Amino acid sequence: MDQTTKRTGRRSRAISALIATSVVATGASVGTVNVASAASACEGVTLNVLFPQPHQGAAETLIADFAAATGGTINPTIVPYDEVAAKATLDAQSGANTFDVVDTFYINVGALAQDGILMDLSEWIASDADLNPDDFIGSVYDPYSLNDGKRYGVPFDGDTHVLFYNTEILERNGITEPPATWDEYLADVKTITENEKANGIYGAAILGQKSPVILGSSYVNRLAGFGGSFLDENGQPALDSEAAIAAAQALLDVAPYALPTPQETAFDQALPAFLNGQVAFMEFWTDLGTYAEGPDSKIQGKWGVTSLPVGGDNTTPIAALNAGFVLGVTAATQKKDCALEFIEYASSTATNLKLITTTGSGIDPVRISSLNDPSYAAFNSKVQAAAATALNGALAWPTVPAAPKLFQELTDGLSALLDGQGTPAEVLAQVNESWKAELGG
């Protein structure tokens, strides 16, 4: 994997490096979380956990708190987000069986379950009263954990995109409110770029690097906004629909007015541009609001956040579950009881609340109780309101076993589109046929 691709899995580390923000707890998050029972299955046990790099900050918090609560040791292995599934699979298939717990992008659940990498946790989830699965946010619980009627993990990071904007730039350009439609968004971005690009200011940063969680997310934001879907009611690909094509066209139309160059823009390029006041709009995960108020941000008090725009006949804002991570237990672990205790601990209300109020954790709400907790609102009221809206019904990415391959095919097609290779209708027709072949349609 080249260095450009590896950078796309480093959101939390990139943010810390770019704006020099250390991983510190603030407000209600101060102190350790102790939700384990007195008789811990983890006392004296070392648990090997595979984390994606966006969760490096969360891992550091968990290592300290879990040891204090249980007497157990977390031994983390941290890799780029898009290497987690491959590393877990290789570990199991080679017979090494190093890992006890895997923290993975939820679209990988189907593939990992089919390959026998993850343990079926259905009975445990149903019988463990302390887990309280009814408290998981409904829009993330099934997509993150359920595959073919069985549950293979618990939600850990409830990722979705919202639209951040720079109020100062909007005011300078006579824009009194953020756009409600993708057409309004295009007009605003175009106006700002034409007025200010000579001064290095652009209407938007478009995350367009060729990675599913980067370029794929930018497209899916528009697919949801136009009321589209990945699959139809029969489970067949729907990427040749009017809404799907309109979404691709909306992405293509705004690219010329975005921070140069969209195809080379990922976390490392977009984040400093927004935090330094160089772009007016950016679609991003809700935890960006924490950094916007950080000590090294140049836009403190000069930003806002709102739902993503709508398009076509759709009038209801719909977020997309872009990224999002689940904790699963490996089928080969010899430390099952401790592994289950850890994922219960890490996904608990107390831990989720601490992590979403800790700068640099890379974690967003997965619990209804933590999402609505007053301390989260106090920590960052604008972000809390946006997260509550975005997570109230969202477009989930398919998690069928072929999902990783499907989304790479979609991303490759979208990248070709931005490079001028075909029209939205032509590109998506080709991707749709590839999906049909994969899904047996």
Give the arrangement of secondary structure elements:
Blueprint (H helix, E strand, L loop, with lengths): L2 H5 L3 H9 L4 E2 L20 E7 L3 H15 L2 E7 L4 H10 L7 E5 L3 H6 L7 H6 L10 H8 E2 L2 E2 L2 E4 L3 E6 H6 L9 H15 L5 E4 L6 H14 L16 H13 L12 H9 L3 E7 L2 H5 L10 E4 L12 E2 L4 E5 L6 H11 L2 H8 L1 E2 L8 H4 L2 H6 L1 H10 L3 E2 L7 H16 L5 H16 L2
Parallel strand pairs: 2-3, 2-4, 9-10, 12-15
Antiparallel strand pairs: 1-14, 4-13, 5-6, 7-13, 8-10, 8-11
Helix pairs in contact: 2-12, 10-11, 10-19, 19-20
Account of the 3D structure:
This protein has helices spanning 3-7, 11-19, 56-70, 84-93, 109-114, 122-127, 138-145, 167-172, 182-196, 212-225, 242-254, 267-275, 288-292, 336-346, 349-356, 368-371, 374-379, 381-390, 403-418, 424-439, and strands spanning 24-25, 46-52, 73-79, 101-105, 146-147, 150-151, 154-157, 161-166, 202-205, 279-285, 303-306, 319-320, 325-329, 358-359, 394-395. The model is unreliable at 1-32 (pLDDT under 50). The chain has 441 residues and is α/β, with parallel strands linked by helices. Helix content is 44%, strand content 14%. The longest helix is centred in the C-terminal third of the chain and has 16 residues, at 403-418. The strands form 5 sheets. Strands 3-2-4-13-7 form a 5-stranded mixed sheet, with helices on both faces. It has a 4-stranded mixed sheet with strand order 9-10-8-11. A two-stranded antiparallel sheet has the order 1-14.
Tally of contiguous helical segments: 20
Strand content: 5-15%
- The percentage helix is 40-55%
Classify the secondary structure makeup into a structural class.
alpha/beta
pLDDT under 50 segments (min length 5)?
1-32
The name of the CATH topology of the largest domain is D-Maltodextrin-Binding Protein, domain 2
- The total tally of domains equals 2
Report the C-alpha radius of gyration, rounded. 21 Å
The CATH H-level homologous superfamily of the largest domain: Periplasmic binding protein-like II
Mean pLDDT: 90
Strand order of the largest sheet: 3-2-4-13-7
Give the name of the CATH architecture of the largest domain. 3-Layer(aba) Sandwich
**CATH classification class of the largest domain:** Alpha Beta
Give me the count of strands. Answer: 15
| Biggest sheet layout | 5 strands, mixed
Global geometry: globular
First-to-last CA distance: 31 Å
